[in-house]
Amino acid sequence: MDLYASYGFDFGLSIGATDYYYPGTEYFDFSDSTGAHGFELNLGYELEGLSLSANYMLNEAGGAGTVGGDMYFELGYSFESLDLFVGAGDGWHTPDGEFGVVNVGIGTSKEIPITEKFSLPVSGSVILNPTTEQFFIVVGISL
What value, to the nearest 5°, has the Cα angle with vertex 4 and ends 124 and 136? Predict the structure, then answer.
């Protein structure tokens, strides 16, 4: 379970923190390099369809795979019914820890009407990780 908190300002800026937790790998200890929790700070900005985010891992946690100081940046653009994005990072984001492009994708979302008063928000993305040569199809339903 990953816990997060974020706050978005009216002018497009958002700040947040995430705790990535890998149960069964180790116990909780922020200062222990073998811990199961990776703590990340997030900063984002959106303006007229363009989005930019920057993320920074605070700690080394062997159980979570973080080395501390790991960075990830993502640039996106949202059209009327389509989202494009590309992301790059280092540390736990790449197999060798070196900075590289790890996320290139296209996504969309739609609300499917079920009744007059209820619709089901669905989303989907196709994503390529050029660094690992892996392809992902992600589908989501929000309730």
Answer: 25
Task: Go through the chain and tell me how many residues it has.
Answer: 143
Domain presence at residue 33: yes
Edge to edge, the sheet with strand 3-8 lists 3-8, 13-21, 37-47, 50-57, 71-78, 83-89, 100-113, 119-129, 134-141
Residue 127 maps to a domain:
no
Task: Reply yes or no on whether the pLDDT at 80 is more than 80.
Answer: yes
- Identify the pLDDT of residue 63: 74
> Where is pLDDT greater, at 119 or 60?
119
Domain that holds residue 13: 3-103
Count of domains observed in the chain: 1
Strands 83-89 and 13-21: unpaired
Do the domain assignments include residue 69?
yes
Query: How many angstroms separate the CA atoms of 101 and 96, rounded?
Result: 12
Q: How confident is the model at residue 93 (pLDDT cuts 50, 70, 90)?
A: confident
Task: Flag whether pLDDT at 141 surpasses 60.
Answer: yes
**Does the residue 126 lie in any domain?**
no
Residue with tokens 């790998």: 25
> Which tokens hold the place of 87?
């992301």
